[in-house]
Amino acid sequence: AADLLSSGDLTGKTFETSWLHKPTGLKAKRLLLIGGGKAKKFAAADLRKLAGAAVRALKARNVHSLAFLAPKGIPAEEAVCAIVEGAFIGDFDSDTYKSDRKDQKMDSVTVIVATGDQSSLQRALDEARIIGESQNFTRDLVNEPSNQMTPTILANRAQAMCKETGLKCEVYGADKIKE
So what's the pLDDT on residue 101? Predict the structure, then answer.
């Protein structure tokens, strides 16, 4: 990347991307570099957006796995949480009813951190997975057309999700709602 930076081909502006093919010293076939903007202002929220952008860029090229190197300026747990959540959200597919739909899902995301307590990193990963999956579940519900997502179907989907995750769910009918 040093050559790209010194030549001016890569400036580090937010979401600026560049691909390196067969990077020296890595087993990876391709390395995606994504600019994060000014280092002093870079935060976990920016990292979340970059992780989503990376997933979308890789999906478009039929790449189904990625390793994401967490930056050193963000605590490891925050970085893991931001990367995993961003990856889940970036993997969302809203083209459910498209006739020429391509199923491009990420199979695996590996997060590489320099240091951190294993149990707290696992906790951050689990929390981020739940948040990302929850957001995508909600997006699935919202994106359904009203003739497909009737109140009854919405209630059934909510009940199924609650049963799957161990949450309590109460569905009210018209009489209870009027009450």
Answer: 66
